[in-house]
Design goal:
The complex is a heterodimer of chains A (143) and B (224).
Chain A lengths: L4 H6 L7 H24 L7 H25 L7 H11 L1 H23 L1 H8 L19
Chain B lengths: L1 H10 L10 H29 L7 H4 L15 H25 L3 H31 L20 H32 L2 H5 L3 H26 L1
The chains are: A mainly alpha (143), B mainly alpha (224).
Chain lengths: 143, 224
């Protein structure tokens, strides 16, 4: 059978249907709520292993949400495999992209902290308490 | 001889190897390039954050809520409402595409209207948040918020925030415009004449991408 725009428009792919839409909606909402609960739990938590770990958990939920949106809402999961590959394979560049740039930023910070004393000391200096309207929570002693 | 006789079937044309319409393929590739643009922005933000000793605490910065009394402390509340608005508008867009498959003009129009309302609600929330931050003294090049450890901050924080949420908001805005055009075309019966609602699917891809980007922006700026 020849493929025309009409035949492609009415082609019924696997999956879809309202049930699947509602299921994915619930999954996305639950993931968002979990992220927010972790976010609330992290308020005021000191830097350290636990905080970094929770950030990692949030990132995993973020990626899962992205996968559900792309796979089901954007229907990519039900497309032809070769087409999926033309989208997904280039995105693997992000793996290098993220690791390389974040590592570079981190290394720049460490080099500056180790070899530029002025930078390190001035970046640790406390900020002068300013009287800024609207930022009352910082300035307990405002007048 | 036999292989030569077999090949014309595959190479004779008339077959779509990806089994989707050309416009949809191109929309996907456009969105992929857009994903790299957003990715570059967010990675630049991440690099700067990794290269900086102190950074403002998002729970201190984004703590306000419309119509709440001064000094109220509600971190994450407003932005979670924005997030749910965008998720729900994405769902109504899927439902519009779904009705399009069934050639149900009324259903498509109904869900498109809901999607447009969701988009406008998100934009209003963002407008309020930007206005509020502006009145607190934050803008490109100006950062009134001190770092979480009490040290003085630079304007990197506000520069990245306004640039990236602004670029995303611009995408939401263009998505709303596209959806309005789709609604007008639907109501005029353009897609019934064509015999298919493929245009709604392409607009839908764009709209879901806007939601997808917000998942990343929301996580990177407000949560971690």
């Amino acid at each position: 059978m020849e493929h025309t725009i009409e035949s492609l428009a009415h082609e019924h792919h696997a999956g879809g249907g309202r049930k699947e839409i509602y299921r994915v909606t619930i999954i996305l909402s639950v993931f968002t709520v979990i992220e927010l609960v972790i976010g609330f739990g992290m308020i005021g938590m000191p830097d350290g292993f636990l905080r970094s770990f929770l950030k990692g958990v949030i990132v995993i939920f973020m990626l899962a949400k992205a996968a559900y949106i792309v796979g089901y809402f954007m229907h990519l999961k039900h497309e032809v495999r070769n087409f999926i590959m033309t989208i997904v394979v280039p995105l693997f560049l992000f793996v290098w992209f993220i690791i390389a740039f974040l590592a570079d930023g981190n290394s720049y910070k460490n080099l500056r902290n180790n070899f530029d004393r002025h930078h390190k000391e001035s970046s640790l200096e406390k900020a002068p308490v300013k009287e800024e309207h609207g930022s009352e929570s910082h300035t307990g002693a405002a007048e | 001889m036999s292989t030569v006789a077999n090949t014309p079937k595959l190479w004779g044309g008339g077959k779509s190897p990806f089994n989707i319409e050309y416009g949809k393929v191109m929309m996907w590739y456009f969105l992929m390039s857009d994903a790299f643009t957003f990715g570059a922005f967010l990675i630049a933000y991440g690099t700067t954050r990794f290269a900086t000793n102190g950074w403002p605490d998002p729970n201190e910065v984004f703590r306000s809520f419309p119509f709440a009394p001064e000094g109220v402390h509600a971190p994450l509340v407003f932005v979670s409402i924005m997030t749910f608005i965008l998720i729900i508008s994405s769902v109504t867009m899927v439902l519009a595409v779904h009705e399009g498959h069934a050639m149900n003009k009324k259903g498509v129009a109904k869900y498109l209207i809901w999607t447009i309302i969701g988009g406008l609600a998100f934009l209003s929330c963002q407008a309020w948040e930007w206005t509020h931050l502006f009145h607190e003294g934050a803008w490109w090049g100006r950062n009134p918020f001190i770092n979480a450890d009490g040290s003085a901050s630079t304007s990197n924080f506000t520069n990245f925030f306004f640039t990236i949420t602004g670029f995303h908001g611009f995408h939401v805005f263009s998505g709303v415009v596209i959806n309005v055009i789709m609604l007008i075309m639907t109501l005029m019966g353009k897609f019934d004449q064509r015999g298919h609602y493929l245009m709604i699917e392409k607009a839908g891809l764009y709209w879901h991408f806007v939601d997808l980007v917000w998942v990343f922006v929301f996580t990177c700026f407000y949560l971690i």
